[in-house]
Amino acid sequence: MNPNESDASQLRPATADRRGEQDLDDLLVHVARGDQAAFEALYDRMVGPVYGVIRRVLRDPSQSEEVAQEVLLEVWRTATRFDPAIGGAATWVLTIAHRRAIDRVRSTIAAAGREQKTAKVSPPHDEVVEAVEASLDRERVRRCLETLTEIQRESITLAYYGGHSYREVAELLHVGLGAIKTRIRDGLIRMRDCLGVS
Amino acid sequence: MRLFRQDLHTLTGAYALDALDQGGEQARFARHLDSCQSCASEVRGFREVATAMAFAASTEPPAELRDRVLADVARTRQLPPEVRTHARARRAPGTATRTPRAPWLPWLSGVVATAAIVVAVVFGVANAHTHSQLTAAQAHNRALAAAQASLQAELDQARAHDQVLAEILGAPHARLLSQVTTKGGVADVVLDAATGRLVVATSGLPALPPGKVYQLWLIGPVRIVSVGLLPSAQSGVTRPVVATGIVKGDKLGLTVEPAPGTKQPTTTPIIALPLPV
């Protein structure tokens, strides 16, 4: 997948773009003061993962674009409430993005009727255009996912990329609810250690 | 459904991936985080894993998106920064009980908030619907026009960012209480008895002379606790104030006090609303 695989693990900082995280926090602080140029810089840094994660969950490009637009506007509007002491700007932005995508999934399902609830399994896939700079992140995450058990890996990707609730994941994988909760948590602990998240 | 602490703790993973049921379960766990420091820090770490997974999924959107977002930004006012006005919500910076979401609480504007209470009552409480069901219901209700669309946007934002307010407004068994004050005007309360919390907003209260403030209290049989000052009204309507820790026998009181408020009430309450919890 990536010819520079061996380099990637050595050169890549511990969490996604950690080297730039301080800047990102600063940018968001400036955005909070109404600085549109700072917002543009933040946009350029964050739009890839924002759109990417929404697209993974929703699949539909035009819906994804719509939700991404809402999310980015929300980042602008609510930047005033960002507190760097609590967590990084990237995590703040991406939590909003993922949650909005999930909201869209759940409300669409509710509108379309409950029978469609578990109709689709959405394993992660690479059909979308890949940004070159994302390939190292991708590789790092892929390697860490590989260290998990199959159930751990599937439950995490179905939940995060697939946008499924843990109950739906349990259904899809034919595993009990209690076990799924534990698998997701254990898997995330391993991922956290593998990625070097503090 | 009753969950034991042990079970709750294992939900950190599902919560961090937004994989809990959006009805009561997610709200319940969010509350649990307030009192479970180890859970909160675990969730923080897991969210960083999620962040890495999002970066790994990076995809360039169509270039037009940038122009559209920047055009939106150019005509959208930002929320004011959070100014904590009530003593109970105040927490020292960096204390362990803060959750990752706490600093992002926006306040709805008073008018919208009061309208939100009404909508929450009509859709959320009377029909015991959750906010997500409300979203779906509204998506299909063509009769609800543009005004409600913006209200929905505010509600969505309340849900995403003001977890506490949204939780109370969306609580399945929340009750709407209302009382006219002895000085005129009315206080509307949405009470979530299950968690001992409420949201209160007022409208039409007489303006006070300089140096006087309205102060909210929880008046119990054995103690009286200040909830904080009533924010100043905009167009006669005050922004919602959240009160927590309500116990059996408490009444919601409102008094006129000398600025900047007092430790215990010094005047006769103009409201003493019994809170059935």
Keywords:
heterodimer, A: 198 residues, mainly alpha, Rna Polymerase Sigma Factor, Chain: A, Arc Repressor Mutant, subunit A, 2 domains, 9 helices, 68% helix, globular, disordered N terminus, B: 277 residues, alpha+beta, Immunoglobulin-like, 4-stranded antiparallel β-sheet, 8 strands, 18% strand
Q: Quick gist of this model?
A:
With 198 residues, chain A is mostly helical.
Walk me through the topology:
The complex is a heterodimer of chains A (198) and B (277).
Chain A: H1 5-11, H2 21-32, H3 36-58, H4 61-78, H5 89-112, H6 135-146, H7 150-160, H8 166-173, H9 177-195
Chain B: H1 5-9, H2 12-16, H3 24-35, H4 37-56, H5 64-74, H6 110-125, H7 131-140, H8 146-161, H9 163-170, E1 175-180, E2 186-192, E3 197-203, E4 212-219, E5 224-229, E6 241-243, E7 251-258, E8 271-274
Antiparallel strand pairs in B: 1-2, 2-3, 3-6, 4-5, 4-7, 7-8
Helix pairs in contact in B: 3-4, 8-9
By DSSP (H or I, 4+ residues per run), the number of helices of chain A equals 9
Give the helix/strand class of chain A.
Answer: mainly alpha
CATH homologous superfamily heading of the largest domain in chain A: RNA polymerase sigma factor, region 2, helix turn helix motif
Tell me the span between the first and last alpha carbons of chain B.
19 Å
N-to-C span of chain A: 28 Å
- Overall number of strands of chain A: 0
In quaternary terms, these chains amount to heterodimer
Largest sheet of chain B: 4 strands, antiparallel
Categorize the overall geometry of chain A. globular
Report on the biggest sheet of chain A: none
